[in-house]
Amino acid sequence: MIDHVGFAVSDLARSDAFYTAALAPLGIAEIMRVTPEQTESGGTAIGYGKDNKPFFWIGDNERVGQGTHVAFTVDTRAEVDAFHAAGLAAGGTDHGAPGIRAHYHPNYYGAFVLDPDGQNIEAVCHRPE
């Protein structure tokens, strides 16, 4: 299952205003804002969603077209580890080793691999170990 999707934007404030207004009728609002010190690539990221779950992200940490991000939900941390290893073995580039990202939430265990075209692909387990 897809956990969340993210896009790079050229003007974070402008895009934030747009998405805040455009998503409001859908019941989607800002859930989380992550600072440059907390992101894997630097820059600010804003997560929008429902029910305290951000599933659509925008960020100014990469160039437009390079910031595409898709995360897949998995059931175990071992699956996150296996995804990362398989992605690297298949020619991907490490973009964040498996581990806890507590700035998202205490049980957020994810890993990031850039595919051959530079797209940021993630596997994430939200369950405690």
Automatic annotation (TrEMBL):
Q: Which PANTHER family match?
A: GLYOXALASE FAMILY PROTEIN (AFU_ORTHOLOGUE AFUA_5G14830)
Pfam families assigned to the protein according to its UniProt record, in alphabetical order: Glyoxalase
- Please give the organism: Sphingomonas naasensis
Q: Which residues form the VOC domain?
A: 1-126
Q: What is this protein called?
A: VOC family protein
Q: Which InterPro entries match?
A: Glyas_Bleomycin-R_OHBP_Dase, Glyas_Fos-R_dOase_dom, VOC_core
